[in-house]
Batch of 2 targets.
Target 1
Amino acid sequence: MPAAKANAARNARGAGAEDQQPVPTARPRGSFCRPPPVKPQRRSPVLLRLFARYARWYVGRHFHRVRISRGAVPPDVGEEPLVVFVNHAAWWDPLICLLLDQQFFPRRESSAPIDARALNQYRFFERLGFFGVEQGTRRGAVTFLRTAEALLSRPRATLWLTPQGRFADVRERPVRFAAGLGHLASRLPHAVYLPVAIEYPFWEESRPEALVRFGQSLTLPPGIQPDEASARLESALAAAQDALAAESLSRRPELFTPLLEGGAGVGGIYDLWRRLRARLTGREFRPEHGTK
């Protein structure tokens, strides 16, 4: 009884701060996955140009050449929204996509999703056009769709995606996407969807080639369902990858246009000796080991 009276007295005068607990309140249905409002992007054209210059230098250090297939060219879509979707072959994909964006879409405003945890760690990516998405959650999926739709509502907007959602070998068939692109395409069937295939084979040099082929762009019919949209886009990317694979196997440089000239040779003492020998014999020094 004394304890009951003490509790009653305490309840009457209000519990102390140490006793207060959050009071559960009723949530609107579905609020557990409600994403934050879409924030305006803080893109910096100056920082983007500087980072693109760094990317050219860095890619050039690690590749022999970046080559673009002559088999197809990206379309001129005017002010229509453009979604460029790329197979996720390797760590290098974002840097190669940046080079492609600067070369073929310099007057468009480009964006791309990135893991929200990475964006929190490297905030300057936001100034380059990236937006954060929580991975593997419904909240993240809703955030992606809302942000992508908002960005693509602007004139000359481009969205770059790696819809497989994971690294995948370029020979993996069938090509399968995570759910995001299919749902986006069902909401925005009028946008132009452009597949891009990338490979990183070794030909005749110690450094690999970066090979790129643009696929056939397409739009989708109104009312298309996400699964059907995803299937059509998967087929379009697979066709581009198959065409690039055939060109890569041929090892014919005339099928490609160089986008970036990188390094060649071995370097170090071996190339120093080759350079000295060429000078002593009056020949031009060529660091390349092959003719491609």
Note: The longest helix spans residues 226-250.
Target 2
Amino acid sequence: MLTVINVLESNRPVTPQKTGRSNRQNVNRVLWQILGLNLLVAAAKIIAGIAAGSISMVADGFHSSMDASSNVIGLVGSTIAGHPPDGNHPYGHQKYETFATLGIGLLLLLTCWNVIKSVFTRLTEGSAPEITTLSFAVMIITIILNIVVVTYERKQGRRLKSSLLLADAAHTKSDIFVSLSVLASLAAVKMGWLWMDVAVAVVIVFVVGHTGWQIIRRASDVLTDCAIIDTTLVERIALSVEGVQSCHKIRSRGTDQAAHLDLHIQVNGQMSLEQAHWLGHLTQEKLQQQLDIMDVLVHVEPVEFQDLNQQVQA
């Protein structure tokens, strides 16, 4: 006796799907707001950096422009990810958001390459930056704006459980540390330490590269269906349902916002099909409530089924 139960087909209202669409709209609204601020910050840094001839400041401006580019990618990814499941995508389109997140990481690595080229140019040409009061003012104001952006975006990312917003917040957070180092280099150059401009640019490469690698690694885990739920926790919850005698073949994948879980439970083989089916529903509902996951697939089988398989294999 085998019964396959899907949480999406159980007695659930349509409300979660509406909530999902609402979350996507909220994510997009946040991205539009952040995009405007990032464009403002990037333009200010690049213009002021070119005027001062500061390689680290211009590099930081390009870094901020990558923030804006990642917002655009995020908007595209989030919009597509919000589409409901269809015949070609029965599990939905959530991985498009992960692809967008992966794009953010790749853009960070591209930023590293741009900074490296700028450093090489400075070393070969040997020009010196001209630091003014405007340079300091631009950096201080943009740092304050970035702190506001990171705080707001990270808060919204956690509230909406959006990996895209959290990744973008991490991206912008790296921009703050880069900007602080640039500010320090401006002060050093002002005191005559011209080499500090190049040195800080090299530091930028390592900071940005590390952040990009972390984002790419997390996105790759999702795209390769890395397990996201502790199997011990799943087993403990399933066995807490009266009538479930064992639990095995536990698998999970997806993201915090769109997690999928499937497992096998074993029940008394003398149960009727209706009783076993109902027990599966109880198990799936308990897992969904306690783990707050999107999709649960419970495979119900009699205890004797495992014993029969062992005899056949022997």
Note: The first helix runs from residue 15 to 52.
